[in-house]
Structure formats: C-alpha cells, structure tokens
Amino acid sequence: MNLPFFETAVFAAQVLIGLAIVCAFVRLALGPRAQDRVLALDTLYVEAMLLVLTQGMRTGNPYVFESAFVIAVLGFASTAAAAKFLLRGEVIE
C-alpha cells in the first residue's frame, strides 16, 4: 500500500468520524429521554477515541495510543455510572 493512498484514506476516515461526532452531538442536544443522551455520550467517547487513534496513525506518535486507551477506560466507567444512576437513582450505594 502506498503512502498517499494511506494518508487519503485516514483523512477520509477522520472526516467521517467528525460527521459522526456532529450527529452524536445532535442526539445529545435533542434526545427526548435521558437514555438517549447517555447513549449519545457513549457514542461520543468511542468516536473521540477513534479520532485520536486515526491522528496517531497519521503522525506515527506512539503516545497517542495510550491517550486513546485512557479515553476508552474513562468513557466506559462514566457510561457504567450513568446507566447505574438511571436504573437505581444513585451511583454509590
């Protein structure tokens, strides 16, 4: 695979991920229920992680992958806490 094709493909992926982020923000703002907003936040952290990973692929910086891992772990923990709050009304018992 040649380099210009790879750079073009990664740039196209970043543009499409950016479009998905905009769609998730719209769902976050207009979501009629709290469950829709939690799902939009979950989608946003996954898309942010993918955007960071594609930027790391473009630059070749290995530290970007560690920051993507941190985004994934914090996003999972926040989604689990929000889901528990929606189910039970409290996060810490």
TrEMBL record:
**What InterPro entries does the record tag this protein with?**
MrpF/PhaF-like
UniProt entry keywords in alphabetical sequence: Cell membrane, Membrane, Transmembrane, Transmembrane helix, Transport
Example of a GO cellular component annotation carried by this entry: plasma membrane
Family recorded in the similarity comment: Belongs to the CPA3 antiporters (TC 2.A.63) subunit F family.
**Protein name per its UniProtKB record:** K+/H+ antiporter subunit F
Domain of life, source organism = Bacteria
Q: What residue ranges are annotated as transmembrane?
A: 6-26, 38-57, 63-87
Pfam families referenced in this protein's UniProt entry, alphabetically: MrpF_PhaF (PF04066)
Q: What is the organism lineage in this UniProt record? A: Bacteria, Pseudomonadati, Pseudomonadota, Betaproteobacteria, Burkholderiales
GO MF annotation list: sodium:proton antiporter activity
Cellular compartment(s): Cell membrane
Q: What is its main location?
A: membrane
Topology with regard to the membrane? Multi-pass membrane protein
